[in-house]
Amino acid sequence: MAAHLLLGALMLGSALAISYHKPAWIPLGDSLSPRLGQDVTNGNGVLGTLDAPRLAKFLPDTHASRHRRKGYSPTDIGIGDVPVTGVTRYYNFTITEQNIAPDGVVRSGMVVNGGYPGPTIEANWGDYFEISVVNALPNEGTSIHWHGLIQHETPYMDGVPGIVQCPIAPGGNFTYRFRADLYGTSFYHSHYSAQYTGGIYGAMIIHGPTENAQYDEDIGPVLLNDWYHLPPPQSNNNLINGKMNVSRQRCTPNAGISKFTFQSGKTYRLRLINAGAEGMQKFSIDGHTMTVIANDFVPLKPYQTDVVTLGIGQRSDIIVTATGKAGQSYWMRSDLGLNALSNPAGCTNNDGVSPLALAAIYYEGADTNSVPTTNSTVPESSIQSCMNDPLNMTVPYYSLTPSTTPAMSQNIDITFASNGTNYLFYMNNSTFRADYNDPILLEAKLGQTVFPAEENVISTGNASSVRFVLYNYAFTGAHPMHMHGHNYWVLAEGYGTWDGTVTNAGNPQRRDVQLLPPAQVNADLVVTSPSYIVLQFNADNPGVWPLHCHIAWHVSAGLYVSILENPTAIKSMHIPKPAAWTGKDVPDQIDSGL
Ligand SMILES: *[C@@H]1O[C@H](CO)[C@@H](O)[C@H](O)[C@H]1NC(C)=O
Ligand SMILES: *[C@@H]1O[C@H](CO)[C@@H](O)[C@H](O)[C@H]1NC(C)=O
Ligand SMILES: *[C@@H]1O[C@H](CO)[C@@H](O)[C@H](O)[C@H]1NC(C)=O
Ligand SMILES: *[C@@H]1O[C@H](CO)[C@@H](O)[C@H](O)[C@H]1NC(C)=O
Ligand SMILES: *[C@@H]1O[C@H](CO)[C@@H](O)[C@H](O)[C@H]1NC(C)=O
Ligand SMILES: *[C@@H]1O[C@H](CO)[C@@H](O)[C@H](O)[C@H]1NC(C)=O
Ligand SMILES: *[C@@H]1O[C@H](CO)[C@@H](O)[C@H](O)[C@H]1NC(C)=O
Ligand SMILES: *[C@@H]1O[C@H](CO)[C@@H](O)[C@H](O)[C@H]1NC(C)=O
Ligand SMILES: *[C@@H]1O[C@H](CO)[C@@H](O)[C@H](O)[C@H]1NC(C)=O
Ligand SMILES: [Cu+2]
Questions:
Q1: Residue 459 DSSP label
Q2: What are phi and psi of 324, to 5 degrees?
Q3: φ, ψ of residue 554 in degrees (nearest 5)
């Protein structure tokens, strides 16, 4: 197996050679540059501290009358028409470079409004967000994506450079305006190269119905992310709400850990978000079971578990009952598990030093400076699965049945190979590269139907329902496959060739990110069986929608296609003055662009 692992490391290293030459990835020194006596912190922001506010069930709403706009919502939402509230929630973002020290180790980061993680944005379902973004980075473009939203009728607000807009130039600004068209838990992040892995992200919470869940208090976002002191591929730490100690040794600087409070007997909603670069998270709370009520923006028939798996870009809303007693404290954990490069059972590339993120939960009366002493109650075997929970467990609360005879059905093969100088990912033999100055949506609006091969455009024409069978021939870890503009159905997952069987055919799992496991290989690194997932959606949301791996390094290396949905409807769509069109002087593109 050693040859396999060494080759794996080399392949990933080469793939990454193209993707980290940017300020966010240049640490202060060649080795860790720990400073004693911290003078640099995460800047503004209260997440992870005892001052973090509980969230309200709904934001104050000055417009009492809510009506539903018929025909507004695409059918794959499954929750009826979106309410029209007449309310807009305004935010201002300024993007800057800044040194941060989430775990006590100082490095250069990129942040929103001077804080890491960025500010939490909130709306009620049906409100508009209006967010002005100023790019104060010295020499990089930027662009902000609102992860998981449908963007029905506003595909040009999806924030993906080269696809629906040009990058916001350094010194420039752009105002995003879009409806909070789904409800639940998500995040916003830069979609420009791997920029968000340097810190340009924050939680996005949309308040809506809670028919499937009863709880007393909303703890709010619990952001989970792998963290790097040095260039990838190996992560060096793991953070909860942007905090974690580096080590327990006193000579090493530590930033302290995130803290939460529980009151015995109450029930809490926690909004788990994997906002990391590469690492799959296994979340648990010692001595407490969790009830999962939503995956991504899709409410579920609640089910209990003692560990929640989150690939990059995935979210899970959970309810936890505070079964502990006054004065007690417990560990909250999020585990990246074994290092995949040195252990075939691992799911994540970490250096093995600190894959386990910890945060403290203090019951009433507990000393909030004490260190919990609880042990994990999760079996090791549950930590080492590189799959999401089985599809027969994750049943949407609002039932929707996909067509058994979709108008369009296509396979896409995912491979990892050298182009002569770099290892890249290929979708049906084509690796993706964005053209920042020529967004696909704007060309589609002008009637263009044929695109450069490297833009990986797949047109669905006027098909009403579309199915993709994704076959993965790469064994570089599970790919969290994210689609913009839709909650797709996940009809099936497995190894080999899909036999047409659908799990829960009347109401299959829906979400916007699903883990596609690695291919199976033998000891000689020959693929013995590809893995697959089968995705389907109703094509009633004209636009250009990315379908890509959410691992930052993988989309950087081309694991990406653009779904051009209903091009005829795009031609007659009203698209305001192109977003942040620079025309020329686009900053250097160091990777696929996304
Ligand atoms: C955003 O900034 C503008 C000034 O540039 C200010 O007028 C406005 O009130 C700010 N909005 C918010 C929500 O802070
Ligand atoms: C955005 O850019 C426009 C055009 O350059 C400028 O007039 C405006 O002041 C800028 N707004 C902000 C908030 O920087
Ligand atoms: C984290 O580091 C801080 C500062 O060194 C220390 O006070 C605290 O006890 C550490 N916490 C844990 C859980 O190790
Ligand atoms: C945690 O595990 C250690 C080692 O097995 C054991 O000594 C300790 O009592 C356990 N703590 C609790 C609170 O169960
Ligand atoms: C889900 O499927 C697995 C095997 O395919 C089976 O063992 C399990 O009982 C099923 N669970 C439910 C809830 O149907
Ligand atoms: C990918 O290639 C296969 C085999 O040539 C083909 O059947 C399929 O249509 C292609 N997929 C797309 C989306 O073009
Ligand atoms: C291989 O891909 C890299 C990264 O996209 C590119 O810079 C290089 O020119 C490509 N090499 C060849 C031989 O096409
Ligand atoms: C990709 O290219 C290889 C080598 O030319 C070929 O064998 C294979 O069929 C192609 N795959 C697809 C999906 O087009
Ligand atoms: C859909 O597209 C096909 C092929 O382009 C065309 O033959 C058909 O007439 C179109 N159907 C509708 C309803 O527009
Ligand atoms: Cu991937």
A1: E
A2: -80, 180
A3: -75, -40
Question: Residue 525: which domain range?
Answer: 408-571
Q: How far apart are CA 527 and CA 522, in angstroms?
A: 7
- Cα 14 to middle of ligand 9, angstroms: 44
Which residues are bridge partners to 174 per DSSP?
133
Element (H, E) at 416: strand 408-418
- Is the beta carbon of 133 within 6 A of some atom in ligand 2? no
Measured in Å, residue 416 CA sits from the centre of ligand 8 at 13
> Residue 96 domain-assigned?
no
What CATH number does residue 541 fall under? 2.60.40.420
pLDDT tens digits, 354-389: 899 999 999 999 999 999 999 998 988 888 889 999
Give domain status of residue 371, yes or no. no
How many domains, in total, are found in the chain? 1
Given a cut of 90, whether residue 331 has pLDDT beyond it is yes
Task: Tell me 115's DSSP state.
Answer: B
SS3 568: helix
Q: Which residues, chain by chain, have CB under 5 Å from ion ligand 10?
A: 479, 549, 551, 554
Question: In what helix (H) or strand (E) does residue 556 lie, and over which residues does it extend?
Answer: helix 552-556
* Stretch among 39-48, 106-115, 328-337 having the lowest mean pLDDT: 39-48
Instruction: Cite the DSSP H helix spans in 285-405.
Output: 380-383
Q: Does residue 126 lie within any of the structural domains? A: no
Tokens 């109450």 identify what position?
266
Instruction: From 21, 422, 426, give the residue whose CB has the most ligand 7 atoms within 8 Å, as the site to mutate.
Output: 422
579 to 30, 147, 243: CA distances (angstroms): 39, 18, 35
